[in-house]
Amino acid sequence: MSKAPGTLDALAPLLFVVLWSTGFIGAKLGLPYAEPLTFLTLRFAIVIVLMLAVAVLARAPWPAWGRNWVHIGVAGLLVHGVYLGGVFIAIGQGLPSGITALVVGLQPLVTALAAGALLGEKVRPAQWAGLALGFTGVVLVVAGKVAGVPAGAVAGMLGPAVVALLGITAGTLYQKRFCPSFDLRTGTVIQYLPTLVATAALAAATETMAVQWTGEFAFALGWLVLVLSVGAVSLLNLLIRRGGAVHVASLFYLTPPVTALVAWLLFGETLTGWALAGMAVAATGVWLARR
Fold this sequence. Notes:
Layout: H1 3-30, H2 36-58, H3 66-92, H4 97-104, H5 107-119, H6 125-147, H7 151-155, H8 158-178, H9 184-206, H10 215-242, H11 245-249, H12 255-267, H13 273-289
Helix pairs in contact: 1-10, 1-12, 2-9, 2-10, 3-8, 3-9, 4-6, 5-8, 6-13
């Protein structure tokens, strides 16, 4: 029995990276059939229904204080609403997933800059070296995808990706500071409630909210609900509870390499020697940052 927590601690980061990396693939599959915020509105609504049923059947505890509800809701709005909204809008506007991943890949560095002032976390020189090395690896992995897109076309699409970067960074720091520990079943419901309200309101104001219910869209929606919004997000909440903000954020360096591997396996996308080298560099950087 004593080995179980250690095994979980070792496997949770790896499993999180693998699951989180498939989010870009799910977005690529589903966005041709629904507008970005409409897609996310459906996703969030289904997650709430599923997790509310789980919480009720399991008689999971709800937060005792109103301020805890507010903190969990704000963290969820930043991590899910702002981050996912930015990513989906960027990809929906035509920004390649590789460039989106590169922008969001700045998160560990931005988190490290803010963690000292906001959380009192001390970032050691070896961690700074690991963060810099990790970002270098991300650049190598996505360099081929970035090079093939005209700079003028990219400039106008970067705004939503930058918003996503700020959302996931602020959400991670906020949750670590104000609500690092909560029941994952009821907490997920609380996180997604304000996210659903805000996303649905924006979708109604800016989109037609039309959906083409194809098999591919249904698969992408189901995958993003069960694997990402339930599985990966639960692991992220667990990691934030157990580790420092920089420790957790460094894992995001591994998502572009794993996404590239998945795209190569599923869609036959090119995987260059530079990309393979970048994967090794990114993995080394994450190892240094998490030592």
